[in-house]
Amino acid sequence: MFEVDRRHGVARMAQDGARWLSTSWDGGYRRADAVYNLTVPEGFERTDLDAYREQRLADAGFATGPALLTGVEMANARYARSGPVTVLATAGVSNPAVLPMGEDDAADGEAAGPASGETDDGWRPGTVNLIVGAHRALDDGALATLLATAVEAKAATLMDVAGVPGTTSDAALVGCVPDASVAEFAGSATEVGTATRACVRDAVRVSLAARYDDGPPAPAEAPYGVVTDRQTDVFQP
């Protein structure tokens, strides 16, 4: 079972010899005994992210490892467990990424901030970060499927709770244990996938509840964000 703890604005998920797939700035496939979620201060503008991560982990007394960054306080982080899966979530939606499903939806879903996929340079204290640990051995394809399963569950949960599928800066880390029992697949109908979907749903919902006393802001009330309102040419191959 993946170990979890939190201190000094850093939440950790640890498992000796684990293998991870990350969407963070230094993402990709890699092995690490621990991964982290870090709260960054308001107005954070540093670009030397590797050095910043190393200093923060050292200050917290943690070993080096992949990390995600967020403006959400780790006091609002929530873990969930089911079967072989452990999930950590931090959730803030002040920078929603609205995706209207038609012209009538565009006005209703308009967010404060730039449209058409463009972002400004303002501070964005939102972000939905996920760390998923599955105590199963997964190959590259299954680990990528686990990432897709987790992100799908996040989007479904946010649509229900906040009316958006994500924010402009969401990130995820998904991991497995190479010497554990093998799971060939990690989609929604599998043991690993089902547990991941349930854990992501519950961890995200409770993290949002911890952050927002009166529920998350409506997309139109959010201080930052984007609306993807561009049109495309759809054609038959």
Describe this structure as you would to a colleague:
- This protein has 237 residues and is an alpha/beta fold.
- It is built from four helices and twelve strands, in the order βββββαββββαβαβαβ.
- The strands form three sheets. A six-stranded mixed β-sheet has the order 4-3-11-10-8-7. It has a four-stranded mixed β-sheet with strand order 1-2-5-6, covered by helices on one side. A two-stranded parallel ribbon has the order 9-12.
- The protein is globular, with a radius of gyration of 18 Å.
- The termini are far apart.
- Mean pLDDT is 91; it is low at 114-124.
List the helices and strands and how they pair.
Blueprint: E1 3-7, E2 10-14, E3 19-22, E4 28-31, E5 34-39, H1 49-59, E6 67-70, E7 78-82, E8 85-92, E9 97-98, H2 103-108, E10 127-134, H3 140-161, E11 171-176, H4 191-211, E12 226-227
Helix pairs in contact: 3-4
